[in-house]
Design a protein that fits this description.
This protein is of the alpha/beta class. It has helices at 7-41, 75-87, 105-114, 155-175; strands at 48-53, 56-62, 95-101, 118-123, 148-151, 178-179, 184-185. The protein is built from four helices and seven strands, in the order αββαβαββαββ. The strands form two sheets. The protein has a five-stranded mixed sheet. The protein has a two-stranded antiparallel sheet with strand order 6-7.
């Protein structure tokens, strides 16, 4: 219990801890960007994600739907699976998920089922984003779990990674270049950013 004379100190401490957690958000997003680079190197859309519990990374993932022939192999899903295996429980309460791109509705559903407490994303996704850009599943009062959502952490960097990737893909499409990592003919794919 906070005594009245300690209230000012308590408030200053909360502000200080808040600043530390913001610095942590940036650090964790930089780690997610590294994972996005791994996806890009594998010929996948560059999205990276990680799950953090008590300041420790317990799950990492990057996009792999093409290489795994699995439409659910989004970065968030990979990170959630690894984190659940790590702690031996499908409930990831007290965990945070950091992802370079706003989660889609599939990933938002998995986040809710896992009971992740907080979602931090980089770039907004104005085509499929389910944290406020297209729809906001976490604000839907009829659903029983509501994660705290923080968007825009390193948004410019995260967005640039994606924009550069799709610019390269459009250039490959135009040239009819084959993508050796995925075995797909770039000219026959409908890549959109």
């Amino acid at each position: 219990m906070v005594r009245p004379r300690d209230a000012g100190l308590y408030c200053r401490l909360r502000v200080f801890l808040g600043l530390l957690s913001s610095m942590g958000d940036v650090d964790f997003m930089r780690e997610a960007l590294q994972l996005a680079g791994m996806a890009e190197a594998a010929g996948e859309v560059p999205v990276g994600a990680l799950v953090v519990r008590e300041g420790v990374i317990i799950g990492r993932g990057y996009n792999a739907p093409i290489s795994k022939s699995d439409p659910s192999a989004h970065a968030e899903m990979q990170a959630i699976r690894e984190a659940a295996q790590h702690i031996g429980n499908y409930r990831l309460t007290e965990c945070e998920l950091f992802v370079t791109l706003e989660p889609c509705s599939m990933c938002a559903g998995a986040i809710m089922h896992a009971r992740i407490a907080r979602v931090v994303y980089g770039a907004a996704d104005y085509k499929t984003g389910a944290c406020g850009s297209v729809l906001n599943l976490f604000a839907e009062s009829r659903l029983n779990h509501h994660a705290e959502v923080t968007g825009g952490v390193l948004a410019e960097e995260c967005g640039k990674v994606l924009s550069d990737f799709f610019a390269m893909r459009r250039k490959q499409q135009k040239a009819g270049i084959r993508n050796p990592e995925s075995g797909l003919r770039a000219a026959g794919m409908d890549y959109e950013d």
